[in-house]
Structure to design on (168 residues):
């Protein structure tokens, strides 16, 4: 019986340490994402090519604002999220979970991330649109990125810990 209690305490402590490490890695992921989204947002704002039909059903003018259903508005969120999260996945595999990345787990991760990034991109666009014309307009991409990052953190930690990056 004592062994079970000791093992439970060890697992609880290990999870707490992993959560802390994951939080630290997520902070660096957030910095990467925020720098990228702000740089790309300003570099691409002139790209006025409309989104294809299937994306316009998700990224509507009602959600993003008039004139924002274009690649120059959506692409910075997509690219910054993808780059930052792939970076975070590999860092977490080495430093947080001490696991090797298998091709299968990386494919699953990429599939989940496509859905999560599309949702996060939509969410970021909605937040930026909601803050446009307010005193927070200049900080809107940063605020939106932080909100999306928090959502992703809450989904990705358990996914990586319990499904994709189990310790060897």
């Amino acid at each position: 019986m004592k062994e079970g209690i000791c093992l439970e305490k060890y697992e609880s402590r290990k999870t707490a340490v992993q959560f802390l490490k994951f939080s630290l890695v997520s902070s660096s992921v957030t910095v990467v994402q925020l720098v990228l989204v702000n740089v790309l947002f300003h570099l691409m704002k002139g790209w006025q090519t409309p989104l294809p039909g299937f994306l316009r059903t998700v990224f509507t003018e009602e959600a993003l604002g008039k004139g924002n259903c274009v690649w120059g508005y959506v692409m910075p969120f997509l690219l910054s999220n993808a780059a930052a999260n792939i970076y975070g996945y590999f860092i977490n595999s080495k430093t947080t979970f001490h696991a090797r990345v298998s091709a299968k787990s990386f494919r699953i991760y990429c599939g989940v991330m496509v859905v999560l990034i599309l949702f996060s991109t939509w969410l970021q666009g909605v937040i930026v649109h909601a803050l446009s014309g307010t005193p927070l307009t200049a900080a809107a991409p940063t605020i939106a990125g932080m909100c999306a990052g928090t959502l992703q953190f809450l989904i990705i930690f358990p996914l990586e810990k319990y499904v994709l990056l189990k310790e060897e």
